[in-house]
Amino acid sequence: MEPLYKEYVLGLSYASYIFVTYLNYRQLRKLHEGRPKILTKLVTPEEFDRFTAYSIDKSKFLFLGDAFSQLQNTAVIYFNLLAWLWNVAGRWLSSAGYSGGSEISQGVIFFLLISVISSITALPFSLYNTFVIEARHGSKTLTIGSFFVSGIKGYLFGGAVGVPLIATFLYIVQWSGDRFYFYVWMFACLFQLVMVSLYPTLIQPLFHECKPLQDDELKGHIENLARRIGFPLGKIHVAPSDPNKHTNHGYSYFFGFSPNKHIAIFESTLKDTTRDEVCALLCHEFGHWKYNHVMKLFIIHQIHLFGIFYIFSHFINHSGLYRAFGFESKPALVGFMLFQYIFSPFEGLATFLTNALCRKQEFQADEFSKRHGYGESLRAGLVRLNKQDCSNLNLDSWYSTYHYSHPPLVDRLKGLVKTE
Ligand SMILES: [Zn+2]
Q: Which residues, chain by chain, have CB under 5 Å from ion ligand 1?
């Protein structure tokens, strides 16, 4: 008897849907609890109510979005829609004159088809999110034109990166045979290194330009701080804030090759914050640098990636897996997607563990900033930037542990008080 892959994947997706919905429910319940004590002096009741109303709207909308994607997933799995799309891609190729079509070109068309279809099905949700929820709560000023322009821009960029990436992946698998996992992993590793080093210097400027920091007094403070810590400071830039980015981290970033590292501070980080608060936030980033956090995460990530490709290499030729989802051939790209379905519980566990490590690193970096005399300013700065983002200030612990790599604001504030 063949293993019941399809039943297993469907069952798994419902189990995970129920779990995630339960987390959403916990989060929604938490939002009705009122202002946490630690925020009493930092956030006014009016501000808190405003952020909470926004979070409640988003939280309710999440139930709808999740239910829709669960239905969509069920249809894709139950009706073998991936196999159908794969055949459509094949027919397009042969009608364009590529008879017998190569797996690489078919894989690329298949990837593009999936991306187009999923953007179309996601469109009503992202329209509602931007023009109803965001508009109701004020902060966003996107017009319908700029919404589509930025969407298409991101889409073209995704294609420009995704298509060569997938073609190379498939080429390596074909070329290297049984040991493909090693070569694919090497390629992924190199690609990430190149992206990390080139992104801020070559790619980011294509979208928006960095300016040098004008505020000489702030510059002096940052230079002093860097000297005290031994940070090899290069130039200090101001980067325009990305309007689409709604994050609870990333107030600044470092780039450039050693020995000197340049700093780019987001415009929004400088807005309304005091010089001490900016230094406190930067000192937190210096803490990450001092403890080699980025390197540690990178290494763990590479071990994880190697594990995935290695285990995948035991599934790639397993015809039963492909047959279970309606495939007659064994295309590597499809194999990798099906493998991810099967492997998702282990992936979930891995994400959970790396998130736990990230949270530990955040507390360490906060502690570092505090040790250099910025405890008070870091608290004020974090609160101010969270207000600016209209962040959810009342996160449920289960919800944030599962979804976020960064600790909730309230926990960070508590951590900063505790070590005083
Ligand atoms: Zn951090």
A: 362, 365
